[in-house]
Model the fold of this input.
Amino acid sequence: MTKSCQWVESRLEAYVSDSLTPAERGELDRHASDCAACRSELAAFAEVDALVAEHFRRRLRSASRPVRPMVRPLRPVGVAGASLAAVWIGFAALGPDAVDPDAADKFPAALEAERAKPDPDPELAIPLAEDPLQPQPTPVVRFRVQDAAGYVHTLEDFSGSVLVLGVVDGNAAAAADFEASYARYTSESGLRFLAVPADGVDLGASRFPTMANRASTLMETDPGEFTIISPEGEVHARGSLDNGELPAAIDSGLRLWRDRFPSGP
Done:
């Protein structure tokens, strides 16, 4: 790492918070234009900043909604979530009159996380069989992922942007191609990248944004494939990650959406 790279790294927080001086911003932009590693690092921080901003927007939206019934069980994430779900199920068994009115203050962090998660789209679920004695079909959700902070995201969270989704398997060439496309197109306005590791795959310290699949079909994207999704949530293109198809598909989509959205998707 050069001294210039170290200088950029020491100012990442100021870059994300837009608190650099004009001179510092000019120096950083000049260095990033010549340094692919720093350019990718800045893009990664900007992506994380966008997720944090979306989290606070959801908190504002949830604050304006009516309070949900206290007997609704949580969707737990991990051991702590499972314990909290057991407490809520116990409240439900006692009945609404037995619910502690101050319960919301006892688990503020977990309740806030639950309220921030979007409700499942009922249109994506398979209806129950008419005969309750017959095996019930498993609901099919096309897109549901979870970020490193534990928040679940649906396709609605990416609406208005072109989403380049890659399901990365153990093929190193596929991961390298996805990373190369991310580095090439990350500065495009309205274009977002998301890699989801296939089952059992560890992507390690990847430079592109990643989230974990949560029991969804990922828009019917198989391991080792990509799907490009339009700002309206429709599939524009599919292909393999390891044969050079992705850049051409992105270029095709950008030409289409620039005609339809002159100010950017």
Summary: Residues 128 and 137 are 7 Å apart (CA to CA).
